[in-house]
Write a structure and sequence with these properties.
This protein has 687 residues and is mainly beta. It has 6 helices and 33 strands. The protein is globular, with a radius of gyration of 24 Å.
Length: 687
């Protein structure tokens, strides 16, 4: 594979970093338009510490970098990936259980996976890695390029994210927090092997270095991916026998590394740095109507981040961040309209300050600027633009802190477009564990480089496009019961029930451009509304149960009678997930059921994908301490339900995986090391 597009930045990185560098600790990161996205983690917490971070409102003021501080009234769910250790799940599988989210999956390991949040298209969902934006030149973010080995937790914000995170956040924003370095020397590793000759593994080391803490993680994986399935070639004929086919060109391989470093500075401030490299090579299967016998995609990403955070004398809290990301995409083989190698680079800085204005009010201001460029070999196509924005958020606490009113606004210049994204949020504590929150606002998505300027085979650009717009509102009631002390094993319960609605305008869609081309235009309008239910219960320290249900209605408002009033494609109306985990650290079992209703795959409503009910189960045992050895078994899709991707290709059926994990921390007692396993962590209620 050719990865010359990474050579320059990698050489610069090696020459400029004489020691490991890191991004934020478990507090890790906020998108470049915000402060860090995670909650404060004690500096003594080890790299694999299981402390779960969730959004809990109505307690003492949250840490400066928590999700609640960034968006005090937002619909936020925090998913702790460490509690899913040993489950052989990729990043998309860890996210799919969250309410309001649907995954668009195109295959097995390494194949493209993207998210739909509250009915917004995948290019209307912002994705960040420790605050570094991951959306590509086409506006999409491919989750297959983020291995779960890197992830400590996900912070999922549902609803318009324009005021806090900028252009692109029509449906929401997801910040992926990577694993944090720890103060004690600790090494760990994990290998997984399973169906379709799938093999995954990673090794990690963390500990003190040069007055700070460092983490180095290296990962790799591969899968043949091909599997057999039965198909009815003449579905209109009753009793027609099924024919055995094989899903070919589903193979992928890849690897990469994560380097993080953090250090406390004089005066209590902190310096965080991150370097992340990801490479992948995957086959291109084509579509059911046009399968490919050749062709591969070579993808790569280099991401760098540096952040200072601390207290500004007499001014409150502040942070300064710089980031850089370069993506590469090259299609090889005889693929029509491949377009040659494509390079996409993004870099920028942001400054943020938060200052109390008396005892009942605080003001947050963010100023950000960045540059973005994309080049394509075919036709020597290239384009670039600058971004600049200013954001202000005012938080007013009334009635002794019972009521919070949070207005915010972002003014943004994206290339040739001026965008204004206001938002008004409120939350109130009602007592006896009950609370309310509500939000209303406006978000935008500027057209992507590919939609505006770059020709992709038979897809033509349109430089006259206007930004998409979303008007949104949501509200929810929350209840929780049980002690706030997470170390107490007494019962803990949590429940959230909410509704949402949005109007999407000027949506961009491709239409036929004679004779054989397609060009994007602003003509779509859609309405979206629905309900979300989240619940979690821990009646005993060894038992955790959770559930999530999403009801989503979409309606195409485009005037063409072929589409008017129809559901939008790839938006299932119902999704329910139930999960239970039981047992102590030395032996525990888990089970999960995911139901997703049928969904359309075209705008006329004539084609759809059937509903699916996927059942998975697994077990884990930490059978040895000092070093800690954990053996896990995971069985996916136990009922062998046949599901399909958005092109009509079948997805993998029943699968089995075995994972062996090892961790060694010299000097730690076996009793103390056992408490650091993810399975030993008491869970907090879902917000």
């Amino acid at each position: 594979m050719r990865w010359t597009f990474l050579a320059g930045p990698v050489v610069c990185l090696v020459l400029s970093l004489p020691c490991p560098v890191r991004a934020q600790p478990s507090e890790a990161a906020a998108p470049p338009a915000a402060v860090d996205a995670s909650g404060e983690v004690p500096s003594a917490a080890p790299e694999s510490a299981p402390t779960r971070t969730t959004v809990v409102r109505g307690r003492t003021p949250p840490p400066p970098e928590s999700p609640e501080r960034r968006d005090p009234t937002g619909a936020i769910t925090v998913i702790d990936a460490r509690e899913r250790a040993g489950e052989a799940r990729d990043t998309a599988e860890l996210l799919v259980g969250s309410v309001g989210l649907a995954v668009q999956d195109s295959g097995g390991y390494g194949q493209s996976k993207s998210l739909v949040v509250r009915g917004a298209s995948s290019n209307g969902v912002l994705v960040f890695l420790d605050g570094i934006p991951l959306n590509g030149a086409g506006g999409l973010s491919d989750l297959s390029l983020i291995p779960s080995a890197l992830v400590e937790r996900f912070e999922v914000l549902r609803g318009g994210a324009g005021a806090r995170y900028g252009s692109g956040g029509l449906g929401g924003a997801i910040n992926i927090i990577t694993r944090a370095p720890g103060p004690n020397l600790r090494t760990s590793g994990e290998v997984t092997y399973g169906s379709w000759n799938t093999a995954l593994g990673h090794v990690a080391a963390t500990g003190p270095m040069l007055g700070g803490q460092a983490l180095l993680l290296v990962h790799a994986g591969r899968s043949d991916g091909d599997f057999a399935y039965d198909v009815d070639e003449l579905p209109a004929v009753d009793g027609n026998p099924q024919v055995s086919e094989r899903r070919a060109r589903n193979n992928a391989q890849g690897g990469g590394a994560l380097l993080r470093y953090r250090r406390r500075l004089v005066g209590g401030s902190r310096l965080d740095a991150l370097a992340e490299l990801s490479l992948e090579d995957r086959a291109i299967p084509g579509t059911v109507q046009n399968p490919q016998s050749t062709g591969d995609q070579e993808l790569g990403r280099l991401a760098l981040g540096l952040r200072w955070s601390g207290v500004l004398d007499g001014l409150g809290q502040g942070s300064a961040r710089g980031f850089f990301r370069r993506d590469g995409l090259e299609v090889t083989g005889r693929i029509p309209g491949a377009g040659g190698a494509q390079r996409h680079s993004v870099g920028g800085v942001e400054l943020e300050g938060r200052r109390p204005l008396g005892e009942r009010q605080s003001l947050t201001v963010t100023v950000a600027a960045s540059g973005e460029t994309v080049t394509q070999e075919e036709g020597a196509q290239a384009s670039s633009w600058l971004r600049a924005s200013v954001m202000a958020m005012d938080e007013v606490r009334l009635f002794g802190g019972t009521l919070d009113v949070v207005p915010s606004m972002r003014l943004e210049r994206v290339g040739p477009y001026w965008l204004l994204s206001p938002k008004l949020g409120a939350s109130v504590e009602l007592g006896r564990g009950f609370g309310l929150r509500a939000n209303a606002g406006q978000s935008h998505r500027a057209p992507s480089f590919l939609e505006l300027y770059i020709r992709q085979g038979t897809l033509l650009p349109n430089p006259g496009l206007k930004p998409e717009r979303a008007l949104y509102a949501d509200a929810a009631v929350m209840w929780r019961s049980g002690p706030e002390d997470s170390d107490n094993a007494a019962p803990r319960w949590g429940l959230t029930l909410g509704g949402f609605a949005a109007l999407y305008e000027n949506l961009i869609a491709y239409e036929l451009y004679p004779p054989l081309m397609a060009r994007p235009y602003n003509f779509d309008t859609a309405r979206v509304w629905g309900l979300e239910l989240e619940g979690e219960a821990r009646p005993f320290s060894w038992l955790l149960a959770s559930t999530g249900y999403t009801y989503l209605r979409t309606e195409n408002r485009y005037g063409d009678p072929r589409f008017f009033g129809k559901d939008l494609p790839y938006r299932p109306r119902h999704k329910w997930v139930g999960r239970v985990r039981a047992g102590p650290d030395w032996l525990n079992a888990r089970a999960e059921v995911l139901y997703q209703s049928a969904q359309l795959i075209n705008r006329t409503g004539s084609l759809d994908l059937p509903s699916r009910t996927l059942v998975s189960a697994g077990a884990s045992s930490t059978f040895l301490h000092g070093p800690d050895l954990t053996l896990s078994v995971e069985l996916k899709n136990l009922l062998d339900v046949r599901t399909f991707d958005f092109t009509g290709f079948p997805l993998p059926g029943r699968a089995a995986y075995v994972t062996l994990a090892v961790a060694l921390e010299p000097g730690a007692s076996s009793s103390s090391s056992s408490t650091r396993e993810p399975h030993a962590s008491p869970a907090s209620p879902v917000p």
